[in-house]
Amino acid sequence: MIKETEGRKRGEEAGERYDYSDGFAARARVSLADPKLRGAVALTSDNKVEVRAQVMMSLKDPEGLQDLAAELRDAVLARLDEHLERLADNWEARGGRVFFAADAAEARDYICSLARKHSARVAVKSKSMASEEIGLNQALAAQGIEAVETDLGEWIVQLAGEHPSHIVTPALHKTKDDVARLFSEVAGERLPEGARALTSFARERLRQKFLDADMGVSGVNFGVSSAGAICTVTNEGNARMCTSLPRIHIALMGMERVVGTWGELGVMLALLGRSATGQKITQYTNVLSGPRRASEIDGPDESHLVILDNGRSRVLGTRYQSALRCIRCGACLNVCPVFRQVGGHAYDPVYSGPIGAVINPLLRDDPQAAELAHASTLCGACTEACPVRIPLHDHLVRLRQDYARKEAGRLEHLAYSSWARAWSSATGFEAFARLNTAVGSMSRFASRKGIPVPFLSRWTKERSLPGFPPSSYRRLRSGVGGLGRRTPESSED
Ligand code: SF4
After folding, report:
1. What's the whole-model pTM score?
2. Is 331 in the pocket of ligand 1 (CB under 6 A)?
């Protein structure tokens, strides 16, 4: 069996294609040079977008349900401390234990200390982006504990020594041939290439790990504060095995992932399955409320709930708070024209796509993360797809403002403030538009002749500079139309 360390070695041997100390553009170039990756990402994303559109229509009032979900998420975020306290009290009343982790190091230390206390050798994990966020597998490996991912996509990327490239479909960037080659290498023999044979191989290998494991680690899709329960949803049933077979269960939950009641959970589940995978409901919806009772046959001896802050409380009460509504469905990734070209690895090792570009810089103060706000065309497709109405592209614009304030040079400040001044009056805008139209005609002429356009060669290499028809000045003068898509929350700024 391949262990975490061996998977990482495999990743190193593959050449660590993506360098996270480098900029987004450099990583995007790596993806763009790989037609197989681009084909795999586009194929799966297209499929998800199509089935999602069909299954959303099966709802009586999809728009109303999404409005309601956004309201419910906001109501919880407005009283998050109360909900977390209630969840913790109710979980403990049912025999569970709770640990509030201020940051990734505290969460890792707590989980590793539990593993040491129970002399754990093998930990099985069901999919958890929060565990990716805190680097749990590496921490367990450093303690000599084998952490085995049991979600099929997660297991594939673990064996390949890679990070997940999508928050719902971690191995989205891999083709069936890639998986057949990888599994054959692991098996030490050539395996048949059919999906059934490959999944049978995974099932056989993972089943023994479930039986051997001393500890199970799961994510949490939602905590239900009034009931002191947590809910996980999967399509493979692996979360049930991780949470009920080993003696110790540890659930790792981002602190914002709470709902108040069962009714609220119902609203979120109706949207999560549809938005994530185009299913009316995912195959396995588990509700857990503490360890095994005396009268029960199955379940762990100990259930620990680790509630992770790691930068989230910094976002509360700011103009970015609505980003914490996220239910990690991945719909914004599937429709994003940038994600569809470069896949998830070009963004960040943990959260990718539009929501990654928004939350990475909010959760950690890091110029590499802040730069991700530029990995967007601002077309607004992500905002339209989001089932909890997060104004993603508005947040990206705000993050660009923050980035410019901190990182941009004086020349860039001067250029953009002059541009802003020019566009704030109809006369200035018209003058700019006429100049742009003239430059656009010249650049199109130069491109046709293969002459590089000074200062604009990178832009005009792949596209021409758009002109502004005179009708657009007139429309703007009379106040009709706008320069970009805006949502009601835009007026907050
Ligand atoms: S931001 Fe919205 S669309 Fe994107 S993952 Fe979160 S809930 Fe889904």
Report:
1. 0.86
2. yes
